């Protein structure tokens, strides 16, 4: 994943100030009004259906005349941006296809699985001859592996799971540490062709992968490589490193990275909070250790109280890498909301927050004709406006999150 666009950098300055001050002026999210609360599950299902269909119609390369073998999600709608220099959004596009398939059972979504399986490595700009799924960005490979695990989860086809395991074993865990190497003393590397940096965006997803490989270990058969316990040990080790080095235990902020001089870059982004709380929640479910749950809740509250600076929602994010950040947060946030172990006060706060965000987006940010979302919460794209893949995916992920949100 390219790090980071200029527009995202300027946003980060605002968020960094919030993190460094401990968010002395937390955002107050108004309770949902009656009109917001009245939206039914059918409403959210229709929104999710419309936006998933729009993803296929406007971004799936093979949909367009002359590109029938382009089994790849284009970076811009309606052939507006055909670059293949962005690998990681492919994972999140497939995540949305998995969401839609698991929700509807429609073969329209399932049929994309084998096509994408062929096309994603083919169009990967940095693939190697020995492994076309390889990429110089470690986190890009991690997002792909997480999507492959979900493809397995929705089909029980172990080829997806085994590929995710191989990627993790060969290309992700291999960048851990070394544990005696200062200043990091551990951590998963972000990118392999530049000065070493240990980033939240490479450690949170890595912990998630390891935890999920532990959960699905038995499905991989006898030739599963490492012992099952090794994956849990590694998940805990990665998570603990991120918590000790990039998590502010006082505020709940998840910082961006640690460079070779030991300096912490205190940018705070919603997706890093999402994967950190996602990993914490996954480890809580495996181990029952309530400290993991407390960490997840702390990180979630930081996003709500100190990053939702746009009148109670997160920042506008039009295209680029930043377009995906909020969607990743919502993907893991809704899993935390749905956990019956979450206390009532935080459940009510979290439920109201995600409902408010989704309602603002659905009512104001989505073009009801094209069903596209451009990254602007309160201004829908025009009918003929080009939209970036990353922003639209955030819209899809939030609508899918509302479809699985549980009410107490």
From TrEMBL:
Protein's organism: Bacteroides thetaiotaomicron dnLKV9
One of the GO biological process terms: carbohydrate metabolic process
Name of this chain's protein: Alpha-1,6-mannanase
Keywords: Signal
Keyword DNA repair: no
InterPro entries in the cross-refs: 6-hairpin_glycosidase_sf, Glyco_hydro_76, MUG_Protein, O_gly_hydro
Signal sequence bounds: 1-19
Keyword Signal belongs to the record: yes
Domain of life: Bacteria
């Amino acid at each position: 994943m390219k790090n980071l666009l200029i527009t995202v950098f300027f946003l980060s300055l605002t968020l960094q100030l919030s993190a460094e001050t401990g968010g002395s002026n937390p955002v107050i999210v108004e309770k949902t009004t009656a009109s917001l609360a009245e939206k039914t599950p059918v409403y959210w299902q229709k929104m999710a259906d419309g936006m998933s269909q729009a993803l296929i119609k406007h971004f799936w390369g093979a949909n367009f005349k002359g590109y029938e073998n382009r089994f790849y999600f284009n970076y811009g709608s309606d052939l507006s941006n055909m670059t293949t220099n962005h690998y990681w959004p492919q994972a999140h596009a497939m995540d949305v296809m998995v969401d839609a398939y698991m929700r509807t059972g429609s073969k329209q979504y399932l049929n994309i699985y084998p096509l994408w399986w062929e096309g994603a490595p083919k169009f990967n700009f940095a693939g190697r001859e020995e492994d076309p799924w390889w990429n110089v960005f470690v986190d890009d490979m991690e997002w792909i592996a997480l999507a492959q695990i979900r493809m397995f989860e929705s089909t029980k086809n172990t080829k997806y799971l085994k590929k995710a395991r191989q990627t993790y074993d060969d290309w992700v865990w291999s960048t851990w540490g070394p544990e005696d190497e200062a200043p990091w003393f551990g951590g998963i590397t972000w990118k392999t062709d530049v000065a070493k940096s240990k980033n939240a965006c490479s450690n949170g997803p890595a912990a998630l992968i390891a935890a999920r490989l532990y959960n699905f270990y038995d499905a991989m058969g006898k030739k599963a490589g490492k012992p099952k316990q090794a994956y849990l040990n590694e998940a805990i080790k990665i998570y603990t490193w991120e918590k000790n080095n990039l998590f502010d235990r006082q505020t709940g902020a998840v910082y961006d990275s640690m460079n070779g001089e030991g300096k912490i870059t205190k940018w705070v982004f919603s997706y890093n909070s999402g994967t950190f709380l996602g990993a914490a929640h996954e480890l809580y479910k495996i181990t029952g250790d309530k400290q993991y749950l407390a960490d997840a809740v702390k990180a979630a509250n930081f996003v709500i109280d100190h990053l939702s600076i746009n009148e109670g929602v997160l920042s506008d994010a039009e295209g680029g890498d930043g377009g995906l950040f909020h969607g990743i947060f919502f993907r893991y946030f809704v899993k935390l909301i749905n956990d019956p172990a979450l206390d009532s006060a935080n459940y009510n706060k979290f439920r109201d927050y995600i409902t408010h965000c989704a309602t603002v987006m659905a009512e104001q940010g989505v073009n009801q004709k094209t069903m596209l979302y451009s990254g602007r919460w309160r201004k829908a794209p025009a009918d003929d406006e080009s939209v970036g893949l990353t922003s639209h995916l955030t819209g899809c992920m939030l609508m899918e999150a509302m479809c699985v949100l549980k009410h107490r």
